[in-house]
């Protein structure tokens, strides 16, 4: 039996929908094609243990998993839930009627629980664009995905909840976020403020002029002079982020896995203080 489920690959800060085709037929062995990396290939062992621990089983038949389009490299463990759902549906252990309406992603632990994924926000944006009814993902990522209006977002803790949802119609808890309310609520909540700086009148005036005119700034001085302290507070005298800028900033943090489970939208200008000896590669990864 052939079943199609849907996941997503993050390329840069945008997402591309991935169709996961699972076919279960007579025979033996597990095949995975479609340019998966090692982390995706290892999903077979995670899925097998997870299914066993929630009362299901990996079918003892020939299983072929194709991840299309095949010319895009699939990376990471976030496809575990997508593939597991396809295997359950294709082997008759789960009702496959409504599986195609949802984009499903999550990393499986061996006990069937779900670990957070990266890039939930751009994936949710792409899911809405392509007309999916909803997005099923780990609960830790639900708030950032729920920022996207017009898409049902369901955060789950265990694959058993997903099985019960499709088999028995037991509803999942939908996570809803008022994007504008969330944006304005945290707009001026900053940990540091420019008014904290005592003295340093000349450099404070220089930073104010730079902020007003949108100029670049270079700070030169001995260690302990206050360069980082001043630079850290410079964003607090810049204009606040617009909602569009906040979404773009949140997308970058989402892809980098830098969002906490309590955060749904970054509405304060971020600050980074890399060491001056940092390499270009590490600078891009840490940003």
List the helices and strands and how they pair.
Elements: E1 2-11, E2 14-25, E3 30-33, H1 38-41, H2 43-53, E4 62-68, H3 80-90, E5 102-104, E6 107-108, E7 114-115, H4 120-129, E8 134-138, H5 142-145, E9 152-156, H6 159-168, H7 179-185, H8 201-213, H9 227-233, H10 243-255, H11 280-286
Parallel strand pairs: 3-4, 5-8, 8-9
Antiparallel strand pairs: 1-2, 2-4, 6-7
Helix pairs in contact: 2-3
If you had to describe this structure to a student in words, what would you say it looks like?
The chain has 287 residues and is α/β, with parallel strands linked by helices. It has two domains: 2-177, 2-Layer Sandwich (Ribosomal Protein S5, domain 2), CATH 3.30.230.10; 182-286, no CATH class. 34% of the residues lie in helices and 17% in strands. The chain is built from eleven helices and nine strands. It has helices at 38-41, 43-53, 80-90, 120-129, 142-145, 159-168, 179-185, 201-213, 227-233, 243-255, 280-286; strands at residues 2-11, 14-25, 30-33, 62-68, 102-104, 107-108, 114-115, 134-138, 152-156. A four-stranded mixed sheet has the order 1-2-4-3. The model has no long low-confidence stretch (mean pLDDT 93).
Rounded mean pLDDT is 93
* Annotation field: number of helices: 11
The helicity comes to 25-40%
CATH architectural type of the largest domain? 2-Layer Sandwich
| Structural domain count | 2
Instruction: Summarize the main sheet.
Output: 4 strands, mixed
Radius of gyration: 23 Å
Strand order of the largest sheet: 1-2-4-3
- Total beta strands: 9
Query: Could you name the CATH class of the largest domain?
Result: Alpha Beta
The residue ranges in which pLDDT falls below 50 over 5 or more consecutive positions are none
- The share of residues in extended strands comes to 15-25%
- The structural class is alpha/beta
